[in-house]
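Why does residue order matter? Because the sequence determines the fold. Keep that principle in mind as you read this record.
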Amino acid sequence: MQRDIAIRARQGDHDAFDALVAASIGRLYSIACLILRDRDRAEDATQEAIVQAWRDIRGLRQPESVDAWLNRLLVRACHRQTRTERRRALVELRVLSEAEPALESPELSVSQRDELDRGFARLDLDQRAVLVLHHFVGLPLTEVAAILDIPAGTAKSRLNRGIAAMRAALEADARSELVRKGRTA
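Structure:
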């Protein structure tokens, strides 16, 4: 079904492209939120990926792999977002709203989610991208490597280093919390 829609979109059918985007936009936005850790930048990256998809849809060689192609465009847009952010100094205050989609697991306590979020934020973009695509989206490492256009060994290395960095960050936070409470680590 999605393959047929992708073929029609590749032939210039606007309605087919709209259907393709409508089926994927929520997933793409969630992935961008997890990678960038900023909803505004995630919206920009998602929009940029969709615009790029429209421009490049005629070049889609494998319509059955449209999801992987969209993921690849999204990850590249996320990279461009981080490069843009490095160039400008910006201070933002984030106001949480009740309408924000829940990306976190409901069974985790607030403090556990906060710890994981702080550890996740310490990872570089490449490590976050691999962790999100593999653990949150559930893609096998070979597909993650294809989406990121890197060798499978590099994807595995980034995954392992990302997990190790998260573990180290969480352990350091736990030790500093013990010291702050007056106990020795």
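Residues 88-105 have pLDDT under 50 and may be disordered.
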